[in-house]
Amino acid sequence: MKELFILRHAKSSWDDPALADFDRPLNHRGKEDAPLMGEHLKKLGIKPDLIVSSPAKRAKKTAKIVAEKIGYDVARIEWRDGIYEASPQSLLYLVCQLPDDAKRVMIVGHNPGLTMLANLLGDVAIDNIPTAGIVGIAFDAKSWDDACRMKGHTVLFDYPKKLKREK
């Protein structure tokens, strides 16, 4: 069994129009939503064996905040340049190459690639993964190379606005 958690970065700031997209930080809402999602994942008992993230500032900060909340060593996060602006095919290739000793993996990145990846691999149609939203997909597979070639079962789709409505 393999489990993939696809986490979109939290809401980013557009306050500085001169700032490169890669360097945009989290805005106020993003700084609230990232810890909220981390706490939610901790309550659900979701702690990945591996977190792989885009190094873009907003994704990096989201990954670090969530990692801290779930008790994952921030120093063990793998930063992959290829996740930034990645096509769904590039993300799928990344999934195929994940180490098989990692049963549970979280990828932190950006839309539209993440939503397309969730639809390629999961069995629930998702129009959009909102900022700080997470999709969990379980695969009846022994290797990531097998998992990336099949439809998994979408077991989780949560995002901050949904959690706030449920409170």
Topology readout:
Blueprint: E1 2-8, H1 28-43, E2 50-53, H2 57-70, E3 78-79, H3 88-96, E4 104-109, H4 113-121, E5 134-139, H5 144-147, E6 153-158, H6 160-166
Parallel strand pairs: 1-4, 2-3, 2-4
Antiparallel strand pairs: 1-5, 5-6
Give an overview of the whole structure.
With 167 residues, the chain is α/β, with parallel strands linked by helices. The chain has a single domain (2-12, 22-166), classed as 3-Layer(aba) Sandwich (Rossmann fold). The protein has six helices and six strands; from the N terminus they run E-H-E-H-E-H-E-H-E-H-E-H. It has helices at residues 28-43, 57-70, 88-96, 113-121, 144-147, 160-166; strands at residues 2-8, 50-53, 78-79, 104-109, 134-139, 153-158. A six-stranded mixed β-sheet has the order 3-2-4-1-5-6, sandwiched between helices. Helix 2 links the parallel strand 2 and strand 3. The longest helix is centred in the N-terminal third of the chain and has 16 residues, at 28-43. The termini are far apart. The mean pLDDT is 96.
- Overall mean confidence score, pLDDT: 96
CATH superfamily: Phosphoglycerate mutase-like
The amount of helix comes to 25-40%
Proportion of residues in extended strands:
15-25%
- Report the principal-axis shape: globular
Q: Which consecutive residue ranges, at least 5 long each, have pLDDT under 50?
A: none
Terminal Cα span: 32 Å
The tally of strands reads: 6
> What order do the SSEs take from the amino end to the carboxyl end, as H and E?
EHEHEHEHEHEH
Biggest β-sheet: strands ordered side by side in the sheet: 3-2-4-1-5-6
Helix-and-strand structural type: alpha/beta
Q: What is the fold-level CATH name, i.e. the topology? A: Rossmann fold
What is the total domain count? 1
As an assembly, this protein is: single chain
In CATH, what is the class?
Alpha Beta
Task: State the helix count.
Answer: 6
Gross CATH architecture: 3-Layer(aba) Sandwich
Largest sheet: 6 strands, mixed
